[in-house]
Design goal:
The complex is a heterodimer of chains A (about 220) and B (about 475). Helices cover about 35% and strands about 25% of the residues of chain A. By secondary structure, chain A is α/β, with parallel strands linked by helices. Chain A has a six-stranded parallel beta sheet. Chain B is of the alpha/beta class and about 475 residues long. Chain B folds into three domains: about 120 residues, no CATH class; about 240 residues, NagB/RpiA/CoA transferase-like (Rossmann fold), CATH 3.40.50; about 80 residues, no CATH class. Chain B has 21 helices and twelve strands. In chain B, strands 1-10-7-4-2-3 form a six-stranded parallel beta sheet, sandwiched between helices. In chain B, strands 8-5-6-9 form a four-stranded mixed beta sheet, with helices on both faces. A two-stranded antiparallel ribbon of chain B has the order 11-12. Chain B is elongated. The chains are: A alpha/beta (about 220), B alpha/beta (about 475). At the A-B interface, helix 1, helix 6, helix 7, strand 9 and strand 10 of A face helix 2, helix 3, helix 4, helix 8 and helix 10 of B.
Chain lengths: ~220, ~475
């Protein structure tokens, strides 16, 4: 019987002469690992600002919503897509929307991929999400994608607003991956790191934001 | 993709005339950014070295890690297809598109799909392909190969992009502002992303321990490809596998710092199979295509397989004194710069890529930069040796008969000192007949090729030996009693 491509390739690789596996020195660790919680927040903010992200700090949910109102006014938001992840859900954005004359819709309002895509691509002025992690080492957000965190919400609209409790701040990626992947059987379909707005420098090396994804990323850090 | 590696010299000569000043300035800028970014490691050298060790281990454990990755990807719900070569991969993907009635696909930047000529295969079968990385989009519309792995269209003048967009994507107002040109591409491709039913992306890392696929990007086009369509095809060359997620994270840090001087690219997405049934976006099916295309053959050579450690960061291009003069076209295929000089000869065969592993000063800049620990200069020398010995596995053809006979005779002569001493005296007048103004620039006959890129000073009238003997004799005469002193 003819070997399958899989077996043929693997057998060839296995038949090749072996090389010894080099010994591993200690894994290099970043300085950020030893920062205090307050220093982590500072580092996060500094790193994200360098990548043109905007960071606001507020004390509690009420202040977060006030900040959101201010952003809605400045950006002229009429209609937004908000995810229903635990933190975003806890903010009761529907009520906030009514007060601020912003129509707030969620992916749950749609019964098909196509109608959801129509809205998120064409109709909304911003995507509002929580985030599962904020990582200080590079000013990065970590989002676990699932039914309450639709992927396109943080990608298709021109503005992405993420509201994140400061308790979710960690120093380095490894801490995130440990929590998301560590010893789990049922992994999330996708996990995503986001660091600032979408960008390119493909024409003559001139950088600009908003290539395909958001042109602006605003992070509201909530908590002392 | 058309292979033009055999035209290296011609293309390089043409490109030299264009004097890519931006390339020299730009490469310096990127080099400084890279160094600054690397300095965010407590010990940059140790971090680079650790990356090299991860890649060396991944390649040493390649078959085992691939099996592990496959098992975990399958249990995550992905499908896995193995392709022996470009043709098998292309046919399979064309077939998938046909079965699903796909009119067009959107693509994330992927070097391996260029390597296997996937766009051509799809288009030939009536499936339109849209490259969606801005640089790739531009070169696809222009029909030119990538100039640089990170900035495939970085050399294209703004005016040319403007004219191209006015012609091909209905740019209304002529503009020379890269931002507005980018925006026009955004609008055009956004509609493609909105309605796309099949996305194709590459893979930066495939994690054996979890079956996870990792993509690193700045624009968001790969995320669209992984979010909007019902079908996602992730094409990977088989060396992309790494042992653990922690290893992947370390390599991502290195990749971004070395590639663009960022701490992290804007998006890093990690996929574990298709979307869950209750999710509204993300692919319903995720199909991983693992491409061999010669790699299991290359793997037989213990030295050459080191080239498979490459993580495609492109840093070696910016550091290369040859690339910085001639740009990316001369390398004649998907991979350019030192990276291309080590990869193209293996994938295409040593015979068709003769100039690639010779167009080097062996300065070792690439080696000193490489986060994957590749020793490019040693590989170039290895290829040359294999080329001379006519290694079949690396598809070398022996050197021409005349050359082989010449070097056989040469070896015989230079290892016999009397013969050598007589010979160098004897040939002098004949060689120097070809000299002009004290230089040997063009020599006809057998040595024509050798002098194509080399000038030598004319041979001295007397050999060193002769002069030494004469000097000593003169000296001893001087010291003799009754001498001139």
């Amino acid at each position: 019987m003819k070997q399958s491509a899989r077996d043929e390739i693997l057998n060839k690789l296995k038949a090749a002469p072996r090389k010894t596996i080099p010994p591993r020195p200690e894994r290099p660790v970043l300085r950020e690992i030893s920062l205090s919680p307050e220093e982590l927040i500072e580092t996060f903010s500094k790193n994200l600002s360098q990548e043109a992200g905007i960071v606001h700090r507020v004390e509690d949910r009420r202040e977060a919503l006030e900040k959101l109102s201010q952003i809605a006014k400045e950006e002229g938001l009429k209609k937004v897509m908000a995810t229903t992840d635990d933190f975003a859900a806890s903010l009761n954005l529907a009520a906030w929307g009514k007060e601020n004359e912003v129509q707030v819709i969620t992916p749950q309002d749609f019964d098909s991929r196509d109608s959801f895509k129509d809205a998120v691509f064409e109709e909304v002025d911003a995507g509002i999400t929580g985030a599962d992690f904020a990582v200080a080492e590079s000013g990065t957000l970590g989002l676990v994608h699932n039914k309450d965190q639709a992927r396109l919400t943080s990608l298709a609209p021109i503005l992405h607003i993420a509201i994140v409790p400061v308790e979710r701040m960690v120093a380095v990626y490894e801490q995130v991956v440990e929590k998301v992947f560590g010893g789990k059987k049922n992994l999330p379909s996708q996990f995503c790191f986001i660091t600032g707005p979408s960008m390119t420098a493909d024409i003559r090396g001139i950088p600009f934001k908003g290539m395909h994804g958001p042109r602006k990323v605003i992070v509201i850090l909530v908590g002392e | 993709m058309e292979v033009k590696t055999e035209q290296f010299s011609e293309v390089a000569r043409e490109e030299l005339r264009k004097a890519y000043t931006f390339l020299k300035a730009g490469a310096n800028f990127v080099r400084i950014r890279r160094e600054t970014a690397l300095s965010t490691f407590p010990d940059a050298a140790a971090a680079q070295a650790y990356g090299a060790i991860i890649r060396a281990e991944a390649i040493a454990r390649l078959p085992e890690l691939l099996e592990k990755f496959e098992k975990n990807a399958l249990s995550n719900g992905a499908k896995v297809f193995w392709a022996r070569d470009a043709n098998e991969a292309g046919q399979y993907i064309v077939c998938l598109a046909k079965e699903r009635g796909i009119e067009y696909v959107t693509k994330g930047k992927s070097m391996v799909t260029e390597e296997i000529g996937l766009n051509e295969a799809l288009e030939k079968n009536g499936v339109k392909t849209w490259e969606t990385d801005l640089g790739e989009f531009i070169i696809q519309l222009l029909g030119v190969p990538p100039f640089h792995i990170v900035g495939p269209a970085i050399n294209i003048p703004v005016a040319k992009v403007r004219d191209l967009f006015m012609e091909k994507i209905d740019l209304k107002e002529p503009t020379s502002d890269p931002v507005q040109l980018g925006h026009a591409a955004r609008i055009f491709l956004r509609d493609k992303f909105h309605r796309v039913e099949m996305g194709i992306a590459g893979v930066n890392m495939a994690v054996a321990e979890t079956g996870t696929i990792v993509n690193v990007e700045n624009e968001g086009n790969i995320r669209f490809n992984k979010s909007s369509p019902r079908t996602l095809i992730s094409v990977m060359s088989l060396e992309k596998v790494v042992p653990t997620l922690e290893d992947a994270l370390h390599l991502i840090r290195l990749l971004c710092r070395n590639c663009t001087g960022q701490k992290l690219s804007v998006y890093v997405s990690m996929d574990n199979g298709p979307k869950k049934s209750d999710e509204i976006d993300g692919p319903e099916e995720l199909i991983v295509v693992i491409v061999d295309n010669g790699r299991s053959r290359i793997y037989q050579d213990k030295i050459a397989r080191e080239a498979m450690c490459c993580i495609r960061c492109g840093a070696c291009l910016n550091g290369c004194p040859v690339y910085r003069q001639i740009g990316g076209y001369a390398y004649g295929w998907v991979y350019s710069g030192p990276m291309g000089q080590v990869l193209n000869p293996l994938l295409l065969g040593l015979e068709r890529t003769q100039d690639l592993y010779r167009a080097t000063t062996l300065c070792g800049s690439c080696k000193s930069i490489c986060p994957a620990g590749i020793d490019h200069p040693s590989l170039f020398l290895h290829y040359r040796a294999k080329d001379v010995s006519g290694d079949a596995a690396l598809r070398a053809k022996k050197r021409p008969l005349v050359e082989r006979i010449f070097f056989r005779l040469w070896t015989w002569a230079v290892t016999r000192h009397r013969l050598w001493n007589w010979g160098v005296r004897f040939v002098r007048p004949f060689v120097n007949k070809e000299a002009h103004e004290g230089m040997l620039r063009e020599v006809g006959g057998l040595f024509k090729g050798w002098f194509r890129s080399r000038d030598l000073p004319a041979m001295a009238g007397k050999t060193f030996h002769d002069r030494w003997t004469e000097l000593r004799e003169a000296e001893s005469r001087r010291r003799e009693p009754g001498g001139t002193e």
